[in-house]
Specification:
With 385 residues, the protein is of the alpha/beta class. The protein contains 12 helices and 14 strands. It folds into 2 domains: 188 residues, Response regulator (Rossmann fold); 139 residues, Response regulator (Rossmann fold, 3-Layer(aba) Sandwich).
């Protein structure tokens, strides 16, 4: 073959190979995620990011989804809702994602919702507040239990202990405010009287004055702390420092070993509602969630060297719900995937058994919550809950 002809053939083959490589790369399904990997909510975002990375790699090693590999694109909002919205816009306009799994906090999620709704991209949030899914938005879903459910679970436990007059001390962040509002709303029907309220800001480092007011309020039998992040740990330490002996309840927003570590011995006796994931080894053998939560716990701990939290579990559930929806749709088409997420039935995840519908974009009921008590620096299941 003449040199010129050989050069031409070689060049053509090179271009074909390059085109094939580019086409293969573009055929990947891009999954976006904006998480609070750093900053005050890093105890949420860090395990979420690690979880998504672990399982995207595992899914790709098994051939991907419908023969296509997943490409995970993660941005760290540092706990800022403004940053979250900026990254959401980038995911839509520059990265051209097919779906979104993320939003560590209520504030960041609420900031991103309009972006994904306008773009008609399925968005599975990992945050807690009920207003994420109520009212129902066509393209927005979530995996964690709602703050309203947390209030209902706590109040049921209080009622069973005949502790019906309580005080609230709430964070003023988006989640703390939302849960406070939900607790106030459901208290009358639950037979709970909120005798007094206090609050604290996300940067407050001492809640002694607020807790002193609560201690001095006559008739209070227990205290409930709607909040997440370091605030509840400070509340718990100050609570014990003041010698308050009333039962203290936290929200599912602190369902990680990091809370126990931050609060130290003061966490002893604190109760909170949480998913089965935290007590995987304590579940009965016939519990349908046990294989899922045990497998996730072992895998996460082996690959990260860290204890599991419910927050990483929320990311696992969000990713698996999305992947299964894509498999059923036999496509990454946004509208088809959205429809299949909404049709999710009987999904057994770390947070519970999920049954979504056009009127329920979370799909969990109160049975998915367990009441836990911290004893000896670990989670224990409150009998009968």
């Amino acid at each position: 073959m003449p040199p010129l002809q050989r050069f031409t053939v070689t060049t053509v083959i090179g271009f074909i190979a390059l085109f094939a490589a580019v086409h293969l790369a573009s055929a990947q399904i891009k999954i976006g995620s904006v998480l609070s990997v750093s900053g005050p909510a890093s105890f949420l975002g860090d395990p979420e990011k690690k979880t998504l990375e672990i399982y995207v790699e595992e899914i790709n090693a098994k051939g991907g989804v419908n023969g296509q590999k997943l490409q995970l694109i993660v941005y760290d909002d540092g706990g800022s809702a403004d940053n979250a919205r900026t990254f959401a816009t980038r995911l839509v306009e520059e990265d051209k994602i097919a779906a979104m799994v993320g939003g560590s906090t209520t504030g960041s999620t609420l900031a991103m919702i309009p972006v994904f709704e306008d773009a008609k991209i399925p968005f599975i949030s990992l945050a807690g507040a009920i207003q994420i899914i109520q009212p129902v938005r066509p393209w927005v879903f979530k995996t964690p239990h709602t703050d309203k459910m947390a209030c209902e679970k706590i109040f049921a436990d209080l009622k069973s202990r005949n502790l019906t007059t309580i005080a609230l001390i709430s964070g003023t962040d988006a989640f703390g405010k939302s849960m406070r509002d939900q607790c106030v709303s459901v208290a009358p029907n639950a037979g709970i009287n909120i005798a007094t309220e206090e609050s604290y800001g996300p940067r407050d480092s001492d809640m002694t004055p607020q807790l002193t007011n609560i201690r001095n309020k006559a008739g209070v039998l227990a205290v409930v702390n709607p909040g997440f992040g370091q605030g509840p740990a400070i509340v718990t330490r100050n609570y014990r420092q003041l010698g308050i002996t009333l039962p203290l309840y936290q929200s599912h927003g602190v369902a990680s070993k990091q809370f126990i570590e931050l609060a130290g011995p003061a966490a002893e006796g604190v109760r909170l509602p949480a998913a089965a994931l935290l007590i995987a080894d304590k579940l009965p053998a016939n519990d349908p969630q046990k294989p899922v939560v045990v497998d996730y716990s072992r895998s996460y701990q082996q690959k990260t060297g860290q204890a599991v939290s419910t927050f990483g579990g929320h990311a696992y559930d969000g990713l698996m719900i999305l992947v299964q929806a894509m498999q059923r749709a036999k496509s990454a088409d946004k509208a088809k995937v959205r429809d299949e997420i909404e049709r999710t039935k009987g999904y057994i995840g770390t947070g519970g058994i999920v049954n979504m519908s056009p009127t329920d974009h979370m799909g969990l009921d109160l049975s998915a919550f367990h009441m836990l008590e911290i004893k000896g620096g670990d989670w224990t299941l409150v009998p009968g809950t």
